[in-house]
């Protein structure tokens, strides 16, 4: 948060819209992951306002377009604030913008969060739709991280549709592929997904072990 605030102060000092957009991006992300959802949304909206003006471009080449970042942060904050219908519309905007910009990493990011939010809403059909699109996109662009996330989401969709025999292997493959990338976040979420699938398969003791592993934050 201190770094995000310093970026914001420098942007204001220089009165530079490009730097200010980056500052809003840093603040919105940090505030969201700090649980300050309303403030995060406010900064995402400010960033979107600058981005929508069409007169400001990032001074650096971004992995994901700032506009896509602002849309998906807004969607996540809306979900946490209980604004589900608005969240779904905002998520669709993030996906649409990423496609329009041919921002494949941004598209993968948006599809993942759309799938995750649909999983929170207990909507297996929508999760499967997002997972399939994410898996296909990741295969085309060699996105190992996002491919693993898509596999995990697909496994949950199958398990929640009373097909745990097929769903659990998808989740386990997704976790293996994810661990192979060396990343940690969002491993705990994936373990929770596997715990639920195991519970649905009447494998309660194994489900509890997954929860213990996720709670302990272990990597292996």
Commentary on this structure:
This protein is mainly α and 220 residues long. The protein has 2 domains: 102 residues, Alpha Horseshoe (Serine Threonine Protein Phosphatase 5, Tetratricopeptide repeat), CATH 1.25.40; 93 residues. 79% of the residues lie in helices and 0% in strands. Helix 3 runs antiparallel to helix 4. The chain is elongated, with a radius of gyration of 18 Å. The model has no long low-confidence stretch (mean pLDDT 92).
Name a few traits of the molecule.
220 residues, Serine Threonine Protein Phosphatase 5, Tetratricopeptide repeat, 2 domains, 0% strand, elongated
Topology:
Layout: H1 2-14, H2 17-33, H3 37-52, H4 66-80, H5 84-100, H6 104-120, H7 124-141, H8 144-160, H9 164-180, H10 187-200, H11 204-216
Q: What would you report as the Rg, rounded to the nearest angstrom? A: 18 Å
CATH superfamily of the largest domain: Tetratricopeptide repeat domain
Contiguous helical run count: 11
What is the highest CATH level, the class of the largest domain? Mainly Alpha
Order of secondary-structure elements = HHHHHHHHHHH
Kindly, what is the distance between the CA atoms of the first and last residues, rounded to a whole number of angstroms? 30 Å
What CATH calls the topology of the largest domain is Serine Threonine Protein Phosphatase 5, Tetratricopeptide repeat
Envelope shape: elongated
- The stretches of 5 or more residues where confidence is low (pLDDT under 50) are none
Please estimate the helix content: over 70%
Strand content: under 5%
> Could you say how many structural domains there are in total?
2
């Amino acid at each position: 948060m201190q770094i995000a605030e310093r970026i914001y102060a420098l942007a204001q000092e220089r009165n530079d819209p490009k730097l200010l957009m980056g500052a809003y991006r840093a603040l919105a992300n940090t505030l969201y992951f700090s649980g300050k959802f309303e403030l995060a949304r406010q900064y995402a909206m400010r960033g979107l306002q600058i981005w929508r003006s069409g007169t400001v471009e990032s001074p650096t080449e971004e992995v994901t377009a700032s506009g896509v970042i602002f849309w998906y942060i807004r969607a996540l904050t809306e979900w946490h604030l209980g604004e589900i219908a608005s969240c779904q519309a905002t998520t669709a905007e993030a996906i649409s913008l990423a496609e329009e910009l041919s921002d494949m990493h941004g598209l993968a990011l948006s599809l993942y969060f759309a799938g995750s939010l649909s999983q929170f809403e207990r909507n297996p059909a929508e999760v499967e739709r997002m997972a399939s699109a994410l898996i296909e996109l990741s295969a085309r662009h060699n996105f190992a991280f996002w491919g693993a996330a898509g596999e995990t989401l697909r496994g949950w969709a199958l398990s929640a549709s009373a097909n745990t025999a097929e769903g659990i292997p998808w989740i386990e493959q997704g976790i293996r592929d994810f661990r192979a990338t060396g990343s940690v976040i969002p491993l705990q979420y994936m373990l929770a997904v596997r715990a639920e699938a195991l519970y649905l398969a009447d494998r309660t003791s194994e489900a509890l072990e997954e929860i213990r592993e996720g709670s302990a934050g272990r990597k292996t």
